[in-house]
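Example record used in the benchmark description.
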Amino acid sequence: MHHFTTLPRRCFSLVAASLLLSTAVSSRAAGKGFTADQSATGVVVKYDGQPFATYVIGDANKSYLFPVYGPTGKAMTRVYPMQKVEGEQYDHPHHRGICFGHQDINGFDSWMERLSVSPLPDDKLTEKQKTSLARMGSAKHIAFKEVAADANRAVIVSENVYVGGDGNKSVTEIRTLTFRVEGDTRLIDWDQEFIATEGDVTFGDKKDAGLSIRVPTTMAVDTKKGGRIVTSTGITDKDAWSKRAPWVDYSGPVEGETVGVAMLNHPNSFRYPTSWHVRTYGLFTANCFGTLDKNDPNGPHTLKKGGKLALHHRFLFHKGDEKTGAIAAAFEKYSKEKK
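Model output (structure tokens):
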């Protein structure tokens, strides 16, 4: 015979509460709000169980975000060089999703990659190509300082050290990526603090430097499918290159739907407003280091040992063009946030 014990009412209430909590946790685990799953290859961020972005480490000479999905579920970065898809552009293999690189930090290049120089083996390279490879450096991922997620956001904080081809370290970077959803938009804040931990460090005056996204091929202005570049000051397409502006928007069709990405430069970011290395073939870069317009120079910048330099940008993925996405209003809100 089995003997059953009647639980006191208070105990029953505790059990019920525990079951409710368990159900809530299970619902959370099933994908309500944000999740951030860390592995040996990076971090996968999801929102309500659907992919948002993947942060990839150890796959190139710099970490990067790929893939990245906009508010309608469309992929918002070119697939190459991570994959080859028919109909895509196969140029500039160092344009990986969303990434940061610089062609001259203490003389070494974390913008280009080995494949950027030549696909040929080392013994088939020209002297010029060998010189380029000797200057090749990396932004080496050291550790994740934080990987967290809740109902409202996901956060990835990583420590990177920039290393030259000679093996010497030049500068430490603390990178904070924050993922959010607001209405019909998806946001990624990309905040960087560079610290001269190893000694003096010089960021050279280079065209190829800064924070970049390579937009899908169909969005590129040059493919003539409806792609459009516009700055906050109203300058469009090829004329936007080299101009300074608080924000720039790149929109166009992806799988039959018009979507866009704006990059916002926070007023507390180094050399605000930044110059824009934005190209009609699909490269979209905030570059505050290089002199893109000789009449509006940036120039090299040296941090003394212990010095710091901060860059603050927001990627805003939206439906339609910059007007549909209300980018001007979004920047006004962003500009008032504390950084």
